[in-house]
Amino acid sequence: MPFMPFQTRPGFYYVYDMNKNSVYKTDKQRYDSLCDIKNESNEDTRVLSEFQEKGLLLDSSIERIEHPASQLLEYQMKRCISTVTFQMSQNCNLRCSYCPYSDNGIYDNRARSDKNIKWDTVQKGIDFLIANSVDSDNLHVSFYGGEPLIVKELVVRAMRYTVEQISGKNITFGMTTNATLLDHKFAEAVKDFNISIMVSLDGPKEIHDKNRSYADGRGSFDTLRENIMNIKEHFPELYKKITYNTVIYPGTSYHSIFEFFRNNQDIFDYSKVSFNELSQNYTDMKISYDESYYSERNYELLKAYLLLLGKINNKAAPELKGEIERIYSYKQIFTPQKSTGPIAHPSGTCVPGLKKLFIDVNGNFYPCERIDENSALMNIGSLEKGFDIEKVREVLNVGTVSEEACRNCWAFHCCNMCPISSDNGKDKHYSKSYKLSKCNNVKAIALEKLKDYTMLREFKFDFNEESIML
Amino acid sequence: MKERLAIYPFSEEAMTLLRHQDKIEGYDITCAIIPKGWKSHFDEEQPIKCLCSEDNFYLENLINNIDAVLLCKFKQLNDMSFYERIISAVQSNSKQIIYTPELESLVGRIDADNRVCLKPPESPSITNNDELFNIDVPVIMVLGVGENCDKLDTQLSIYDYFNKKGYKPKLISSNIISQIMGMSAFPDCIDNHKYTFLQQVKIINTFVKNIELKEKPELIIIGVPGGIMKYSKAVPNGYGYVPFLISNAIAPDVAVLSLYCGDYQEEKIKEIKSMCYYRMGVMANYFHISNKTCNYDIETKQLNYYPVDKPYLIENLIRPQENIPAFNVLDDRSREKAFEAIMKELQANIAVV
Ligand code: SF4
Q1: Is A464 part of the contact surface with chain B (CB cutoff 8 Å)?
Q2: Do A134 and B78 touch (CB under 8 A)?
Q3: How many CB atoms lie under 10 A from the CB of residue A389?
Q4: What secondary structure letter does DSSP report for B322?
Q5: How many CB atoms lie within 10 A of CB B49?
Q6: Considering only CA atoms, which of B39, B28, B112 is closest in space to residue B74?
Q7: Within 10 Å of residue B166's Cβ, how many Cβ atoms?
Q8: 3-class secondary structure for A333-395?
Q9: d(CA A113, CA B133)
Q10: Do B3-117 and B139-349 have matching folds?
Q11: Are A91 and A116 in contact (CB under 8 A)?
Q12: Which fold has domain B3-117?
């Protein structure tokens, strides 16, 4: 049954209607009755009928699961690619404890090797982007690893080549790096390109060094800090475009990580940090965080809510930027609609390769850099052969493998199951049982979002992004 | 002897000019300059001989082979430095430059004698009387659901059809650039906030009436700028203001609505028709299905457009919907069928045609 009764606070009862992607306020008696129907603990459907007579909480109108981009997929793939991310190297100068390239037994999707990308592959990749992006006005070329700065000169050459080949389009570059090789010479060479650099920084020295160390065990924090300081001093414009990716390892003190960024604003700008838990994809290991982690994280989230509701001073906004952006995204998710069409697809998946085409050192194509390079399912083409459109179509239509469940799922419009989270890295096609094993978690996250969104609405928050300074 | 004209930058949007270049008065398009990294192959039946890459244009000094450059401004081009090189080349070689008003600040440095700005015509003066003039010749109105759905091509094709049938049509186009083809554009009141809505309606009505009286066309084709409705909350599309304004000023006898490429079911068409009718009082009975599709990119917060190829469009989207009636300007069969139906409708309704 595609509806979900829920409460935000004591005395506030609602029901969410998947067909209309809408939330209705209700009372306790109706809420209880709907919960009973949902749990199949009561046969009395009078309350449900009452809603249905008004055209609400109807059975799912979805007849077939198909992603809307499927029909014209090959045209879109021929003309609208906007980003390529190159795996510049499978090698890295660090051996981070949880990195897929570190052979640490957590993730099985990658193996570290000494292989670097060849110039010919980069050049063909950029040519491919240009040839397949005639209808994209904004092009982005990104460098990823292993550690991309192992082949610094190729990174610079690639940027130069890209701008030489294109005019009249907005070209940006990006790079994810551990920053240990982010030296003066490199900064000098790239300072005039429109490049954003994401630095992996896990927090204070003792935490960072524990996870991000060289092969000989030395920590990398001091080198990273020195390089960032140097860029700040000599290349202030480039410094402004540095952001941080902070991976929180289970068992680490979330509080001390936050405190670190709070106390080092002068160099590691808090508003530019994105905090991430370890990925649950491509691992058999159960990754779990303890209670103290969630209470600290929820405390930050609470502050974001209070800020949005005007209950605390908005001076605190920069450090809450990530949380606030997440909250604003709820509006997009829960935009009411007249009805759900007979052909639809659960939300959560983008067109593979269109916005984040990942090209590995061998010139193979994958939907994005988070994939399992060994997954036969996720290999969607190559520089040599171009896109394998049927493969792209299969990867895109991640909902079809669980068609029956998805058609009747209340979380259809707020599902965040994407190809990567649905791929076990082992099978040639999506595995239904693997995918469905993740649904409970997805629904729990969706329900939390739904509650938060509704509660903000209760407090008359209008989700008007311009109203708050980030 | 016609002057030799180069178009910069050349892209699919400028293809309409090439298809209808016989209408360009005093110029032959001899050079279509494609910037680096832009599309260089076009699915036209005849090969396009005048295509030239930006690199070749400068390397081979092709500026010497032309007399004028038509500078196009596409919506997505925000970096004005993109035009610097061509403007400098035009200036140092004393060539003529033809451009739209939004490029004025860049082109201003060129000698006034060598500059032609395709400005919208001035608004006619109006009386205080609120009453609108009747337009006494048939009017075909071409509207679009949004930008980039081939409205100009549709207008020009209708113009050609009636012209060939021996009528004397007049086109008031949605696109300012069509003035280079001798068509009219809408007066400057449309974007001028000093006028009230009532004044804008009156000006447009007077403007069309003046054309009717002065030029004595047998048919007026009106291309309506902008889209008839918002795309979404995030993309308001001008809230359909201009179409609302123009449809208040002029009541068309026939309305053609251009839609993005898609498989439109009967229900959807009904919905679009009633929206058009109740919002603008216009009964759209003919539907042009563009080869371009449009979708919203959440990340860039922009609309993206991309075309499908002609055989796919005709086979999968036009043929099954010809009874709507739907057509595409690039498809002879559906186009002729739709235009013939329009002509018959006008002949049945109005004695003048
Ligand atoms: S949560 Fe599971 S069943 Fe529901 S829409 Fe997502 S993938 Fe389908």
Answers
A1: no
A2: no
A3: 14
A4: T
A5: 8
A6: B39
A7: 7
A8: HCCCCCCCCCEECCCCCCCCCCCCEEECCCCEEECCCCCCCCCCCCCCEECCCEECHHHHHHH
A9: 79
A10: yes
A11: yes
A12: Rossmann fold (3.40.50)
- Amino acid identity, position B221: I
Say yes or no: A444 contacts chain B, CB-CB below 8 A.
Answer: no
Domain ranges, ordered by start, for chain B:
3-117, 139-349
Q: Which of A66, A345, A402, A434 to mutate to test the pocket of ligand 1 (most atoms within 8 A of CB)?
A: A402
Asked if the Cβ–Cβ distance from A168 to B82 is below 8 Å, we say yes
Angle at B351 between CA B349 and CA B352, to 5 degrees: 115
Report how many Cβ contacts below 8 Å link chain A to chain B: 53
A138 touches chain B (CB under 8 A): yes
Going by CA atoms, what residue is nearest to atom 3 of ligand 1? A406
Radius of gyration in angstroms for the set of CA atoms belonging to chain A, rounded to a whole number: 24
Cβ atoms of A112 and A103 closer than 8 Å:
yes
Return the structure tokens found at B248: 């208040």
From residue A23, give the alpha-carbon distance in Å to each of A52, A447, A458, B150, B178. 14, 12, 12, 39, 49
CATH number belonging to domain B139-349: 3.40.50.300
Domains of chain A (ranges plus CATH)?
1-59 (no CATH), 62-470 (3.20.20.70)
Closest Cβ–Cβ partner in A75, A168, A169 for B307: A75
Strand duo A242-248 + A195-200: pairing: parallel
Tokens of B202: 């009156």
B269, B263 in Cβ contact below 8 A?
no
B239: left (phi over 0), alpha (psi -120 to 50) or beta: left
CA distance A186 to A97: 27
0.90 cut: is pTM over it? no
CB B261 within 8 A of CB B290: yes
Q: pLDDT tens, position by position, for chain B (353 residues)? A: 899 999 999 988 788 899 899 999 899 999 999 999 887 777 666 778 899 999 999 999 999 999 999 998 866 666 778 899 999 999 999 999 999 988 888 888 888 899 999 999 999 999 888 789 999 999 999 999 998 899 999 999 999 999 999 999 999 998 899 999 999 999 999 888 899 999 999 999 999 999 999 999 999 999 999 999 887 777 788 889 999 999 999 999 999 999 999 888 888 889 899 999 998 999 999 999 999 998 887 777 788 888 898 889 999 888 888 888 899 999 999 999 999 999 999 988 754 44
Q: What ipTM was reported for this prediction? A: 0.79
Which residue on chain A is closest to B234 by alpha carbon?
A: A332
* A192-209 pLDDT tens trace: 999 999 999 999 999 999
Are B208 and B172 contacting, i.e. CB atoms less than 8 angstroms apart? yes
Is the CB–ligand 1 distance for residue A350 below 6 Å? Answer: no
In A135-250, which ranges are E strands? 138-144, 170-177, 195-200, 242-248
CA-CA distances (angstroms) from residue B318 to B15, B237, B261, B287? 21, 26, 9, 10
